[in-house]
Every structure is written in structure tokens, then in C-alpha cells.
Amino acid sequence: MNPPALSLITGAPAVGNAPRPCSDDAVRDTLQHVLTSKRFAKARRCTALLAYLVERALLCDDTAASPPEHEIGVAVFGRDPASYFPADDPIVRVQAGRLRLRLTAYYADEGAADTLRITVPQGRYHARIALAENGAAGPLGLVPAPLLLFSPLICLCADAQAVHFTAGLNDELGFRLYRELHSLSLASGDRASPPAGHPRALYLLEGAVRQDALLLRVSLILRQGAGGAGGAVLWYAQFDRAHGSDLGSDNAIGNQEQMAARCVAALQEHLPRCLSLRAL
Predict the structure, then answer these.
(1) Residues 91-111: pLDDT tens digits?
(2) What is the C-alpha to C-alpha distance for residues 267 and 237, in angstroms, rounded to an integer?
């Protein structure tokens, strides 16, 4: 069997401006996780069909588009375009039915904690990508992965006022991020990775605080995936304030609130769309 002919659709124009629930890379990571699962590892036709439908959905960017059955038969299953007639050859319909059954079984077991869900609605050949409901736990009590893991900022200097400012800033950032996203996990200490058996977040926010005689500087880094320093950097920004004796003054909480508000406001402009949109 020939592999999916994705080259047939790489030139397809984007239609409409329908938002996706997550970045293309995150969707492809999720797809790869599904395709390498026990449920799909040996199902070559189903994996080929699912890969094709997901790539087509990403490339065409049209939530209402469903590729013709003839196109799928030729591109995925190697049928001769001149002699293939879907009415006489049901391979696409049969494999699509099997794909739906495998996806249902996968999300009831291995994929119960997946944050992103891929489905193929009945009667269509369009891959739908959506975020799992936050309140939905799997059959074994597994909780879907949070969207964002916040690793507390590290203070890079020993000054007591800067250390206290950083601790208060971490508290303000955690509160504001939870209020805005409603899907947040807090790293424990210096460990950005979750304990064994717990799902990883889609994105990691980390950073540092440092100061000299003139400035206090807060650096924030947003990474793809919560696997630590190896994740691709999606956003990197720095925020300064004039250094003065007011860091430890009676208005310390107000200063921490102001800095947290600046950081979160800037972060919101660069967050991947999946952190604010619930479904495709």
C-alpha cells in the first residue's frame, strides 16, 4: 500500500479564518501519539487515513470541508484515479468506520488523559480537533492534562528584597494565570516535569528575576510542551522596573501586582490559540 499522498494537497489554499484549538505542531504531536499507540500501531490503513485527514484539515483550514471520497481513495489507498469509482469500491467507507471505532476505543483507554481529541464525525471525512472538557476524567479516573504548566520564577540574586519580591510575584502570576486560563498546573520546586503517570501540560511558562543597582528585570519564556529546557521557545520577553527601596516597602504587594499584570497582559497577546479557544 502506498503512503498517503500528502503532496496532492500541499498546494491547497486556506479557506476562511476558522481558528484551531491549538498550534499545528501540538496537533501533529497529538496525532503522532495516537498513531504510535497500541490501538493503532499495527492498523496501517487506519493510521494512513487518520494522518491524511488531520494533515488535510491543517492545510485547508476550513472546518466545513470534507475531502471527496474519490480523493481519499486515490491519495491514501492507492486507487487508480481513472478506474476508481467509490460507488463500486467501498474501501474508504469501510476504513473510515473502522477508524471511528479505533478512536473511540483509544480515548476510552490509552488516550483517556489526552488534552487534544481527534474525531471523525459520522457521515463525513473531516478530522475534527478539539480540546477535551476540563471536567471530564477518563474511566480510570485520569484527569486531562492542563494547558499550561507554570514553573515559579527563579531569583538570580541573593538580595533579600529581590528574593521576597520574586516570591510574591510568583504568587500573583499563579493567581492571574489561573483566573485567565482555568487550566493551570504549578510545578513543584525546581521540577518542571510532572510525576510519573501524570499527563504533561501542552505549554510551559518559566523565567527568572535579577537586579543591579539601577533595574529589576523579569524574564519570561513560553515553551512548547512541559518537558523542560528542550521545548521549543514560542515567546521570550523581559520586563524592567527602576530599582529602588520600594521593593520591600509597605506597597510591596501593589508592586508585585503591577508587574504580574504587565507580564500576563503581554503573555496573552502571544499565547497559542489553544489556550483560549475550547474547540475547532
Answers:
(1) 999 999 999 888 988 888 888
(2) 9
Q: What is the pTM for the complete model shown?
A: 0.48
Closest listed residue to residue 120, CA positions, set 94, 95, 90, 96: 96
| Amino acid present at 108 | A
Burial of 146 (0-12, 13-18, 19+ CB in 10 A): buried
Instruction: Kindly report the three-state secondary structure assignment for every residue of the chain.
Output: CCCCCHHHCCCCCCCCCCCCCCCHHHHHHHHHHHHCCCCCCCCHHHHHHHHHHHHHHHHHCCCCCCCCHHHHHHHCCCCCCCCCCCCCCCHHHHHHHHHHHHHHHHHCCCCCCCCEEEECCCCCCCCEEEECCCCCCCCCCCCCCCCEEECCCEECCCCHHHHHHHHHHHHHHHHHHHHHHCCEEECECCECCCCCCCCCCCEEEEEEEEECCCEEEEEEEEEECCCCCCCCEEEEEEEEEECCHHHHCCCHHHHHHHHHHHHHHHHHCCCCHHHCCCEC
Q: Is the pLDDT reported for residue 73 higher than 90?
A: yes
pLDDT digits (tens, 9 = 90+) for 138-186: 443 444 455 678 889 999 998 888 899 999 999 999 888 887 766 567 7
Question: Which position has the higher pLDDT, 278 or 206?
Answer: 206
